[in-house]
Amino acid sequence: LGSCPLSISTPGVSVRDPFRVLANCTGPQSPTLKPSDEVLQLFKTLHRTRQQVFKNDARALEARIKINEEFKCNKTETSPKKIEELIKIGSDVELILRTSVIQGIHTDHNTLKLVPRKDLLIENVPYCDAPTQKQ
Fold first, then answer.
1. Which residues contact 4 (CB under 8 A, 6 or more apart)?
2. Which superkingdom (predicted)?
3. pTM for this one?
């Protein structure tokens, strides 16, 4: 995926609205997806990632509005180069959300309980004070 605008406008925005103008775009394309399909896929991926990352956090789940606004404000973009740049930005944001954001829950006045997702813990390697020697 390239980059896509990340905004959310209104809760009632149709998923297709942000992509109306992209259907006629003739810029650089991925081998299997038209730019409009790529934008729609990114839009859906961002929302799925938002739901996973901010699970059970109603306030943070409002990021939906920002995602929709960004896509809506860029729905009339016709420049293939700009569309590609926006898709890249959107993909980068999705990657950062998926790999770098951990939920924290206030348990006491000065205490946070971190709730990492399972997919974040997979790549973690335990620290070892005494390195092993290669044989």
1. 38, 39, 42, 43, 71, 74, 83, 86, 87, 88, 89, 90, 91
2. Eukaryota
3. 0.61
